Amino acid sequence: MNDYLTTILSINSRSSLLFILLVFISVLSNCDNASGQQEKKVVSTVDFAVDTIPTLNATKLELTKQYCLENYGVASYKLDSPKIVLVHFTVIPTLEETVEYFQKDSIESSRTNISKFSQMNVGIHYIVDKDGSIYKLVPDTVIARHAIGFNHVSIGIENIAKDAADLTPAQLESNVKLIAVLKERNPGLEYLVGHHEYNDISLAHYKLFLAVDESYKPHNKPDPGPKFIADLREKLKAEHNLTFMK
């Protein structure tokens, strides 16, 4: 009888231990699942095609270095800590014409409002074509001349369009994907600004404005327009839980 009871107790003990172990494993599994669900809320890497069209050479890098010395007081073309994503449209109607324009080393003398401050040509980091294709022209680590007073802290995106009405849904989607990836690569990005907003001294980003020559000031621009930038902010929040300051 005693042997029988001992056997029963032994079996019950093993069953209890097994039961406790199964409960513990279940709890761990639930914790892992909860952790995984939380991680899904964080911006995940977005896979999309980016075709590279190089526009840099030794001459342009030297012009960029000189531009930065004259306008930001630093003899370097490096973009170390970008804070702003600045969105434009080209006015130039095609990708081919836009690339041809940006590939020039020196700015056109006809652009009298900015050519007197540097011979460096205007430039951009990314172009988004009307079908949503994304092209990289300048590395994220190199300064491009696309926004007076903010080039030292900004990554620029141009959208091929004659005006705001010419922008496409495909471009909006690609801007969302591109900015989500840029934020992953550059966690310090805090501001999303339309070119039409960059001259607004009431917005938070304006505290980053820098110009050695006080006469080199931003001027009003129409691109990409209030609707496109509002839609862009809304989709970044809805699809990637990303909110940027202005």
TrEMBL record:
SMART domains: Ami_2 (SM00644)
InterPro entries: Amidase/PGRP_sf, Amidase_domain, NAMLAA_amidase_2
Enzyme class: hydrolase
UniProt domain N-acetylmuramoyl-L-alanine amidase: residue ranges: 72-206
EC annotation from Swiss-Prot or TrEMBL: 3.5.1.28
Matches recorded under Gene3D superfamilies: Peptidoglycan recognition protein-like (3.40.80.10)
Chemical reaction(s) catalysed: Hydrolyzes the link between N-acetylmuramoyl residues and L-amino acid residues in certain cell-wall glycopeptides
Keywords recorded for this protein, A-Z: Cell wall biogenesis/degradation, Hydrolase
PANTHER family membership: N-ACETYLMURAMOYL-L-ALANINE AMIDASE AMID
Name this polypeptide is given: N-acetylmuramoyl-L-alanine amidase
